Amino acid sequence: MARAVSNFRCTECGWTSIKWVGRCGECQQWGTVTDAGAATGITKRVSTVAVSEASGARSITEIGAESVAHWPSGIAEFDRVLGGGVVPGAAILLSGEPGVGKSTLLLEVASRAAASGQRVLYVTAEESVSQVRLRAERTNALHPSLFLAAETDLGTILGQIDHVKPQLVIVDSVQTVASAATEGIAGGPSQVREVASTLIRVSKDQNLPILLVGHVTKDGNIAGPRLLEHLVDVVLQFEGDRQTALRFVRAHKNRFGSTEEVGCFEMTGEGIAEVSDPSGLFLSHARQPVSGTCVTIALEGRRALPVEVQALIVKSQAPQPRRVVNGVDASRVAMLLAVLERRAGIPLSTFDVYVSTVGGIRVTEPGADLAIALAIASAYKDKAYSATMAVVGEISLAGEIRPASSSKQRRAEATRLGFSTVIDSDAAHVREALRLAFAGATDERVQIPEF
């Protein structure tokens, strides 16, 4: 008689092994390999279930298109990312770095929803109710329709939902809640999967929207099994630098709207405040034009924002000059330095180069290449550009300027903000763009001497 062999399976990717290992050999995740039971060699047959005429499949042309009803949370920037507001029965996962302000944002959402007439249940599994109450008092988030509960047991949380009967539930966080019906510690793959699936099932059964807070790993990924992101309807990422007050909310997955919208917020002493028009946050307030600066129109989701790029050139005595960047991609800056030296004749190999953005925003899109190149050239020539000039374009290794995406939207935003001169793909080469910029030319073609 053949001996039964234990089959160990990874809960993340399904990889199997004949023995237990601490790390999956396929997805390289730790603690995801579990015993799937002994292999018996017997294949079970699934019986056929009769389907009635009412529940049977219908032609897609016979099914009516029902619009998803959103209700506003009271924060326009948050609703913008969600696609118009919170959808009843939706499961929303919000993740972000520790200390970025996830709990502060959701407490503000809970307060605004309670002020609009909704009963809100805020479950904290990381703090006491007294701590949350103190933060709510500091941020003016107190409301009698907002209920607090400090629970880490899934069954108790379900009892609180039945007791309060809320229209919105916030759980902070899903990695700190455990179920007595599943083995393992809170935050483990099995516990996170059980807690999330149970809360999502309650959300669908009761048509109750649930906001879940998710921790992230050191790589920036959401902690727990990858299945968590597939179960929820919306995955939001809360981004921001601790050294700056600006915060962004992006949607990586949204079943009820677009994933290209971005919400802008600012952390203040009284909590978090939405920024409906962040156009002036990434521009310096110098009264006179300064050399080494150039403005580009960057895209954050569907939103066009003016961003000022600053550069500083210093003669270096070291054999290898320094290249220090902040807010831009270091590899693209190195490429642009090579293009400027080879295609535009600007010798930069003996200079320390410093490039940064204003306001702490990070710009990684290729459309900012032209602004970086012009800022470096301005610092080298020690000559300032016109204060009404904005540039957009991607620079190739041949020195050619390629058009950036959504050029019409960028030009419209530049015109709205008072930038009368816009240099983009109309300048076919980086040398021509440099001549246009230093001459202060408009969109009209004029005869300009060589740079």
TrEMBL record:
This is DNA repair protein RadA. Belongs to the RecA family. RadA subfamily. It holds the Pfam family Zn_ribbon_LapB. The lineage of its organism: Bacteria, Bacillati, Actinomycetota, Actinomycetes, Micrococcales. SMART domains: AAA. ATP binds at residues 96-103. It comes from Salinibacterium amurskyense. One of its GO terms (molecular function) is serine-type endopeptidase activity. Plays a role in repairing double-strand DNA breaks, probably involving stabilizing or processing branched DNA or blocked replication forks. DNA-dependent ATPase involved in processing of recombination intermediates, plays a role in repairing DNA breaks. Stimulates the branch migration of RecA-mediated strand transfer reactions, allowing the 3' invading strand to extend heteroduplex DNA faster. Binds ssDNA in the presence of ADP but not other nucleotides, has ATPase activity that is stimulated by ssDNA and various branched DNA structures, but inhibited by SSB. Does not have RecA's homology-searching function. NCBIfam families: sms (TIGR00416). InterPro entries: AAA+_ATPase (IPR003593), DNA_repair_RadA (IPR004504), Lon_proteolytic (IPR008269), P-loop_NTPase (IPR027417), RecA_ATP-bd (IPR020588), Ribosomal_Su5_D2-typ_SF (IPR020568), Ribsml_uS5_D2-typ_fold_subgr (IPR014721), Rubredoxin_2 (IPR041166). SUPFAM superfamilies: P-loop containing nucleoside triphosphate hydrolases, Ribosomal protein S5 domain 2-like.
